[in-house]
Amino acid sequence: QQGKRYSPTPETNQIRIKTTQSARLETDQSLLSCPLRYSSSATTMPDAATATVLGFGGRAPPYVLEILSQAIHQNDVQEIVPERSSSVELELAKAPYRCFLNGYDKSAAKASGGKDLLLYCLPSSWAEFVATAATEVSQVRSVLLSFDSSTVVAVYDASQCKILGSADVLAALRGDVTAQQTLAIAALKALTELDQNAIPKIGENEKDVVVVVGGGGREHALAVALAKSPLVSKVWVSPGNGGTATEGGKIENVPGGKQDNVSIIALTKETNAKLVAVGPEAPLVDGLVDALAKECPSVLVFGPTQAAAELEASKAFSKDFLQEHGIPTAKYRNFTDVNEALAYVESLDIPNDRQVVKASGLAAGKGVLLPTTKDETIQAVKEIMSDKAFGAAGDTCVIESFLTGPEASCFAFCDGKTAKLMPASQDHKRALDNDEGLNTGGMGAYAPAPCVTPDIHVAIEAMCQKTVEKMAARGTPYIGLLYAGMMLTPNGPYVLEFNCRFGDPETQAVLHLLETDLYEVMTACCTGTLDRIDIRFRPNTAAATVVCAAKGYPEQYPKGMEITGLDAANAIDGVKVYHAGTKLDSATTRCSGGRVLSVTGVGPVLKSALQIAYKGVDRIDFIDNNKPGESFLHRRTDIGKKAVQKKLRIGVLGSTRGTALLPVMEACANGSINAEIVAVISNKASALILDKGRSLGKTVTVKALSAKSLSREQFDAECTSVLMGAGVEFILLVGYMRILSSPFCQFWAGRCINVHPSLLPKHAGGMDLAVHQAVIDAKEAESGCTIHQVTATVDGGPVVVQKRVSVVAGETAESLKAKVQPLEGPAFVEAIEMYTKGEVISYADAGVNIDAGNKLVDLIKPFCKATRRAGCDADLGGFGGLFDLNSAGYNASDTVLIGATDGVGTKLRIAHSVKKHDTVGIDLVAMCVNDLIVAGGEPLFFLDYFATGHLEVEEAASVVKGIAAGCTQAGCGLIGGETAEMPSMYAPGDYDLAGFSVGAVQKSAILPQNVQAGDVLLGLTSSGIHSNGFSLVRKLIEREGLSYSSPCPWDESVATVGESLLAPTKIYVKACLPLLKDNLVKAMAHITGGGLLENLPRSLPEGVGATVTYHPALPPVFKWLKEASGLDDKEMMRTFNCGIGMVLIVDKANVEKACGLLKTNGESEVITLGELVAGPREVAFHGQLS
């Protein structure tokens, strides 16, 4: 929208979430043995059929996807709503299902009998049932017991991989009552079984005891997560820390706890623990799992055996393992002889083949050195192998090629057969901001890591799955948590190393994303049943952890400082403080290590999670009472900064050479825009734009998809699945020769831009040379290209960027294309830069011309000045219009202001069609001021609102000229208005109007007053249809085969139908105002929509009715409407004004004087319609329209 006399109005989008509410009934066993009877209207449902997919979590069974796909493509379902079913959207978009969740137009489906679908997945575990029973189970049961035939309910059992009842869900959707009843009965039986299985557990006191081994922040987080399980009664932490000591609830430290094998075995027996979860790597490498298996064979142990833990214990072993099984990893060599290692380094071209030097054994996370030169590499080898900087861990040294790319920490739950990957995280190893300083155990982390796209996630999970399978094949099954340190290289993801436990501090972030009960997941890992558990993660959730370390860490640092602000930090919504190097000293928590605390924040996106975490950190300090005023807390201030400022991931759709993509590729490469192209897709296998995508490297997704035998929506869904898999955030259409479907446009709304070879909105819908020729044919002086957002209206989305060129004499379509085409790439670059920088797009960029608005103001100022009257100067350009009541002759203490607002309605459609705009402004004024005088008021001033998709100055000026003419007729001042240019709201060439008028009346003269039986009804003629009923008028014109340019069939004195229909609404102010000032009128009624029969009673008191005994002959236009529509007299009189536009109620003694004044002031005919009578407040018509 525009400025000056204009103010912006924000546009908002609302998302409707459909819920079904019914009375909950108790399940009666007798219901399960008899047919279910459905009522046809038990509940009110939306206009379009919906499929709700409930409780599937991370599952997306092919059979269920096929049902949903068919429900959309071949049935009446318009929208799919996943609730706690996070995987459905992406999997459903893929081939062969090719289906969006929404955006389909099937508005008539519900009316034609289309049914809703509620598809529910039974909980796979007791904890899941407990967590969801109060909501999901009761929701399904209530829908079933409402016996509503408009909703098909089906239940999926993941343990059997089928929908219960063995009936055809799609047939039920199509109206097969037997199939629907069969599904419903099976669903009720399943829900009843859930309840019956729960009965033995009600009041059950025997819950499991868990032992967590370790004392860091990771173990604190594990203990908190395990304690949330309804299956766990106690969590013992050994040795624990100051945080687990004060956590309370189920969590308790073991007094004097240790983590050696003997101590943990004794603790396990003493507490009768059901599960032992091992946190650190050292006990695993020392064989704790093996020892527990021998001494406590019935106890479940979450963690790998000593043999399986060799994946972390020996980097040399893990590198050999990866190479043997073809799992991508860096080129490497293992050495046990320092001289051989040094000779190998000497043989390398280090500047072009940088190396990483690692101690093969455990080194507390510090055994990796990153030299940059050959001399530094030699020194690193000596430090590890000769100087024994990491002790025996350096007996074997691994030298491997330095990989480049983002790193990611990837955790996979493993049960010896199956690996299930959690959302990836990223940590920060360096001690100082900007990744400077010494390596540490980790200074912060966040999850999910945006660099790990869905496709990369699948690839990494496959690597973990292969690792588990090959470990089992060698007789060392891997059970527990497999931590794959990944490098996302230009050639794809590579494994840097394996760890055999949760990472720290990544665990403190990642566990906040886990929705499934951690205890049940660990139990499934230990029992080989991981494939039966649905591991779910919270959607739209991010977590960030900031480590608070002791000042001086990782070198020398003090201990014993008091930690302040813990309660204040934990009190912040979304903050959880985990302890690592802390101890409890009486009631005071003190520092006892280098990494002291991990402050975790949780939010809907990473940026908010980081803000919340740092808000918690700011509450905390480490103090030494002997050194007042000095802080001993060190933290990094840039955790997650790179992720928040990451490059925009661009996907490209193209069908041609893609020449306009070259400047974008160059801008991405040289860093002038913070973006990267990650996917290029074409509908043509031969499109040269695919070669441009391949030139960007192996990690760029490049695909040609066939549209053969696919609908537009199906093809677009498959494209979307590829784009989603590549992590695309923003789409460019570069020479894409396909019209995009409405679901695609809705899915990518605001994130997809196209280039059009003209200055939109001119020549929208055309392509290539045809557009350039149209510009030349229109004799336009300039052309260019437009970058616009893509919407379902072809070339109708908001304009983002426009580039212009001059059109010269003798121009051809080819020569104009040669001038315009080179601008398209730079225009794309500019649009992307604006998006990445979050810049506000200017009005001109968005298709709003401020200069045109200013020109309009200049054009209409004379019209407005012509409406000057006492009290206002009718000038424009300020923020508000002023009116002086005293100057208008009103005493403010005895004056009431009256406001009225109205529009012109669909009469504007006719004005648009015939391109006649100078009379609708009069209509606008008339509809407002005629309402004002009905209250007895004099119109004082008027304001207008003009909204359009593209401001055509002359057209708008013509409208305002009409408004000014109406104000002159009404004697009110046009003191201001609003012009709103909104390309996203109105189609090119469309506009809408609203008017606002204010009048004044003395308190003693407010109408109606003293209306009673015996008063006379005087009618004033209308000028035509006025501004009501045009939806019906337009329909009749169409049905009679007429156009607005057709000769007028009801009035030979006007040339066309359009000219007659656009006759402006009559303004009654100047005729009626003298009667008001002489107190001759008791009440008035403006006859608008609803006609005489609906409007007149609004001016009558209770107990008084109106009898109309005479009505003048119908004017020709109303006679034609009556004949064309077939409406009877009553319907005509409650639809149109039928020739009477205003009714005055006057005392019988004043009729003659009133009629005389009306005629003196311009009314050629005053009609006595009837009189008021005692009775109901309604109009009785005694007569016939002739």
Largest sheet: 7 strands, mixed
Indicate the structural class.
alpha/beta
Report the β-strand fraction as a percent range.
Answer: 15-25%
Mean pLDDT across all residues, rounded?
89
What is the number of helical segments per DSSP (H or I, 4+ residues)? 37
Helix content: 25-40%
Rg result:
39 Å
What this model shows, in words?
- With 1186 residues, this protein is of the alpha/beta class.
- Helix 21 packs parallel to helix 26 (813-836), helix 27 packs parallel to helix 30 (953-970) and helix 29 (920-934) runs parallel beside helix 30 (953-970).
- The relative contact order is 0.06.
- The strands form eleven sheets. It has a seven-stranded mixed β-sheet, with helices on both faces. Strands 17, 20, 23, 25, 28 and 30 form a six-stranded antiparallel β-sheet that branches. Strands 43-45-42-46-44-47 form a six-stranded mixed β-sheet.
- A hairpin with an 8-residue loop joins strand 12 and strand 13.
- The protein is built from 37 helices and 47 strands.
- It is elongated and about 120 Å long.
- Helices cover 32% and strands 23% of the residues.
